[in-house]
Sequence to fold (143 residues):
Amino acid sequence: MSGAGGTGAVRDGNGADWGAYPRAYGARVAVYAALVVLGLLTGTAGTLVQGGWFPFGLLLALAAAVGLFWGGAKLCRTKVGAAAPSAGWVLAVLLITPSRSEGDFLFAAGIASYVYLFGGMLAAVMCTTVALPAPPVPVGKNR
Fold:
């Protein structure tokens, strides 16, 4: 069911707007791949910002991560929409965490690094489990 005016908005029987979402399988896969890449970029940028501008950098990095996770869930209306950027974020953070053989590291042994790591993972889990329900699908149509 689409909204009046040809906007493409999906509405339920009560007239509530469900918002846009990728309908075709290929489009969903492309959106999920883009969300993984955005998660990688957000995790990398957050790692640099949280240590550089303490305490506001930490808040900015966590806000960006939560915004990306919740935005993916809201865009796709699926749990995968929140899990895709979460996977990219966790992958980036875990690859950056170990110190190099030269002694270089990006995560200091302070409280801010642990708050960023555990806070981001907690936000990823929360946004994935609270993901919005998918819009109704007409009978006879498969997702």
About this structure: The beta strands are 10-11, 17-19. The radius of gyration is 18 Å.
